[in-house]
């Protein structure tokens, strides 16, 4: 994956990781609470406020939450890729700056990387042909 795409998805990656950790802790607390084997203080009193139907809803959320976050990441990646293809694949592979209208061989004004527009387009096509956007 080109470096700028990985950096662009950083906020979503952090959110995904935090969501998965929180949901894993909640799932573990629910499981232990339902077994009745361990009382976890504040977590048990929080879970104890829910009806059995509410506990089942929380379990479904814990199991489906990570998939929803991954779908959001995939949607954001596809949106970025679509914007790259709409720009005729002339975005810098180092920082994502749109190189359209600049000389065919130059340095990127954003990051200073040297490029030829043909190499940039070939690299984007190669990445997308390898299944880059999913």
Biggest pleated sheet: 2 strands, antiparallel
For the record, the count of structural domains works out to 2
Radius of gyration: 23 Å
Mean residue pLDDT: 75
Distance between the termini: 11 Å
N-to-C order of helices and strands: HHHHEEH
What helical percentage do the residues reach? 55-70%
* Residue windows where pLDDT falls under 50 for at least 5 positions: none
**Rough shape?**
rod-shaped
Strand order of the largest sheet: 1-2
- Structural category is mainly alpha
Q: Helical element count?
A: 5
Strand content: under 5%
Number of strands: 2
Structural overview:
The protein is mainly alpha-helical and 134 residues long. It folds into two domains: 1-86; 87-134, no CATH class. 65% of the residues lie in helices and 4% in strands. It has a two-stranded antiparallel sheet. The longest helix is centred in the middle third of the chain and has 35 residues, at 52-86. The protein starts with a helix and ends in a 5-residue tail after the last helix. The model has no long low-confidence stretch (mean pLDDT 75).
Walk me through the topology.
Layout: H1 3-8, H2 10-35, H3 42-48, H4 52-86, E1 105-107, E2 114-116, H5 117-129
Antiparallel strand pairs: 1-2
Using brief descriptors, characterize the structure shown:
two-stranded antiparallel ribbon; mainly alpha; 65% helix; 5 helices; 134 residues
Give the gist of this structure.
The protein is built from five helices and two strands, in the order ααααββα.
